[in-house]
């Protein structure tokens, strides 16, 4: 079972020498040759996989320069490099067999802003949304808008000349680049900007490296100007990589070398800094969501909408719309895109107007609405309805839905998944409907399903056919479709790539450029990188080079995946389905997704990273002849057949440095907080805690478990015993020698104190469940009973909360009954004790199913444990539905009549901070609490927060103290620092413990607050 990959396989001698050399020359960033990092970096948001030799993470331009200068020395001339940003490309632009230069980890500094002149200077690793969050207080934004804006870097946008929504008005990234700082393959620093043609000619006459580049590019673009203008279609989404046309202005009075570098996909140099122009935010917005009876109607109606002088016109088809409706994000927009009675909406156009004043857009909006009313009345153009919104937050919700819906395409059921490989074609907008109809005929003729969305104002539509790349016949279809779409695009005088760059589609470059102009591209590549060492194979190769362009037929992720047993693939679908869209790299610190990545910025510690690692682990286990599913079944249903001695011996070998890829996977899994944000926030629903638990169960069949895992897994057995003598237990646990032993031997800190007095002494015996007595009760006598389902945290460490809930239930006119404590098993699952968890779940299921027969509500207080019944129980017990349902407190409270309670007099502001697991799984929970408090006359402030950093036992483990604190400071501390002047409430037990640890003051649960004030 142990995958033996030698250190020599991970990094050869030349590579090690290179790493040592750059470190010795002052490279201050990180270097990583581990197999785990290489596997995680081997994919992007495309269908391809290319394992690099190593990954380096520069911290500044000087680091990049050092890396390139050393690489230009013998014996390192055979090394190649590929710059990487957010890794969100859909065509494999950042994949390389050489050394990845990842600028996203550290180079995220916004260097300066000039408000008066409207520009900003940034490092290449700055994330698009990060930049706009910085610019917003100044009244500016960086205009090119991408669906991946919360993880796409500026450097990546520059290298693919990215664009998106609103490009008709705002243009592409290249339209906003004022200056670039680029490091060439030999370490030369090249600074470029728009110059008067005479100045560019002077530079071209210099006899240095910069002069040679200016000379070749200037002459190539000038001498072929007429051919360029004739060859390239007049489109908003003009041809990228390399932009031979727009290096000159229309009058040929200026020359800008940055235009060639922008869109070059890192094949000419490594962009480290950029000066960008920024756009004034227009304060007034209106969005009109227009609904259609067919997608064709939506497409054919788009020129009419563009003529209305809108800022942007976006479209989605019914496939994308219906996927969004099945996701938690639909809750945020369901009232903004409501159904049309009696009509099946098959298409949606989203038309946005912006203006400096309300009057500036009022006339346009009124005119368009009047025309839409007429179309609806006359049943013309397929328009069946529309909705209008002026609220900026609502508009953002709608666009967030559309952005996520793009990723949701990858979560369609079955083996065939919509794939991005020929999906950013651009044609003149007036040709779009006819082009798409032929495109659909092509896909329909092959019996394929697909989703469509895009920017109809610019003639760009994303079409993602569903294919199973593990099926050789369907892989052949990918080539057939690609070739036919190239021909179809040419027929409609369009481009194969209108937004997402070339990458592995570079082989089609000669067909679009023609031999003469493609030769000019090769001249430019030659002067920048004559040995083809920068992102080799992308866009073009140097003149006289024997190297080939990359191809759509090149190595794909599926080539690795299909070597995994099909039963394993199906069983671990929640890992196998990851398509690399990278939403887990969301930079927003207040998003619950994904705390371990946010705090480490290490992509191994992300859902995508962990899915990549576990897939490779499956493959390597297959190579070793291990039957994973049979082994897992034995471990859960019988006994581990590996002896204690064998586990001890394997553990000792690990300590001595014996290489096993399993240990690299384990290192990544250890950083997971098991918060489950990925199960809902990820559009593919990559469920890391589920496959992590299964991995740990298998891993520890071969290695010894640490003592702390046994203590955590047994917490529901030991805590009730300790609670019999709570004062003695608290005294003992807080003795300095015991605390030291827990920290240094067990690896556990800040143990919470047991409640004194205990819950048992707080609750009247008449409120305790007695099965014999309950069997005698009539339905009428049971009519007001509410069962409280205990959990180990609130029952034994926060008995005052359970007592408050009992009080509140009584005040609402019901009779609370405290069920006996029955272990839930969540901790066992988190630590991968699946045999024990199955036993615990079976017992709890049997007990709670008996209680369910009374047909009265069962309510629990801790979100993690209550949600465990709804998720982990179904999987371990192999059920589609349980015979019982446990509600969370707010779910039950929302159904109650609060008129009998009255209003609470409260002058201090009240703020509720939500548990991240609850927020992810139940996005409406904050709204429910707000409504409950509104009934009591209190306005509840519910800010968006990420993970507090505690997450069950994660924050108590010694190894995680720094990350736990950093997460708290990142997302929570600015909300809790004013606890003296406002009332802070928190729904999570872990969250309350974390605040108490760092602020020395514990927030109340909202139930405690209500119970104390009514």
TrEMBL record:
Domain FAD-binding PCMH-type per the UniProt entry, residue ranges: 48-281
Q: Where is the 4Fe-4S ferredoxin-type domain?
A: 663-694
Q: What is its EC number?
A: 1.1.99.39
Q: Cross-referenced Pfam families, in alphabetical order? A: FAD-oxidase_C, FAD_binding_4, Fer4_8
The record's annotation in PANTHER family points to: D-2-HYDROXYGLUTARATE DEHYDROGENASE, D-LACTATE DEHYDROGENASE
Swiss-Prot/TrEMBL GO biological process terms: lactate catabolic process
What InterPro entries does this protein map onto?
Answer: 4Fe4S_Fe-S-bd, 4Fe4S_Fe_S_CS, FAD-bd_oxidored_4_C, FAD-bd_PCMH, FAD-bd_PCMH-like_sf, FAD-bd_PCMH_sub1, FAD-bd_PCMH_sub2, FAD-linked_Oxase-like_C
- Enzyme class comes to oxidoreductase
Q: Which SUPFAM superfamilies match?
A: alpha-helical ferredoxin, FAD-binding/transporter-associated domain-like, FAD-linked oxidases, C-terminal domain
Any idea which GO molecular function terms this record carries?
(R)-2-hydroxyglutarate dehydrogenase activity; 4 iron, 4 sulfur cluster binding; D-lactate dehydrogenase (cytochrome) activity; D-lactate dehydrogenase (NAD+) activity; FAD binding; metal ion binding
Keywords in UniProt for this one?
A: 4Fe-4S, FAD, Flavoprotein, Iron, Iron-sulfur, Metal-binding, Oxidoreductase
Q: Which cofactor does it need?
A: FAD
The family line of this record is: In the N-terminal section; belongs to the FAD-binding oxidoreductase/transferase type 4 family.
What name appears for this protein in its UniProt entry? D-2-hydroxyglutarate dehydrogenase
Which reaction is the catalytic activity of this chain? (R)-2-hydroxyglutarate + A = 2-oxoglutarate + AH2
